[in-house]
Amino acid sequence: xxxxxxxxxxxxxxxxxxxxxxxxxxxxxxxxxxxxxxxxxxxxxxxxxxxxxxxxxxxxxxxxxxxxxxxxxxxxxxxxxxxxxxxxxxxxxxxxxxxxxxxxxxxxxxxxxxxxxxxxxxxxxxxxxxxxxxxxxxxxxxxxxxxxxxxxxxxxxx
Length: 158
What we know:
By secondary structure, the protein is α/β, with parallel strands linked by helices. The chain has one domain: Rossmann fold (3-Layer(aba) Sandwich). The protein is 49% helix and 19% strand. The protein has helices spanning 2-9, 19-29, 48-65, 105-128, 142-157, and strands at 35-40, 67-74, 86-90, 97-101, 132-137. The protein has a three-stranded parallel β-sheet, sandwiched between helices. A two-stranded antiparallel sheet has the order 3-4. It starts with a helix and ends with a helix.
């Protein structure tokens, strides 16, 4: 209950999220082996290749010391754009606003391709670091997916 309360009432000091810093912090404070859940959309600002490499390093270190489980939260609206004309989108991490012409099929296709490429790089990174991963969609109920994931995980570990 304390953890849930801390999460719900936390007042962030900035806009950005630093997943690597969170994993490094967990590695410093967790003395005994633990199951660590990393819940994120894994979207970062800046150079995506550098961000993924830093994340892989942190996941590798955490997964060596603990049992790391990554819960990848996805929203279908972040993977494809509707045809609604000019659209201003804001990067939640940096506050940067970009205008896109969603009436242009090439813009929508490029956006979808970039989102797919980002997801594929992330999945390859999880596999390379042997991190158990569950992808959850915000439009779907999460409980059946979690139950199925842990049943499979339990069978695999026994």
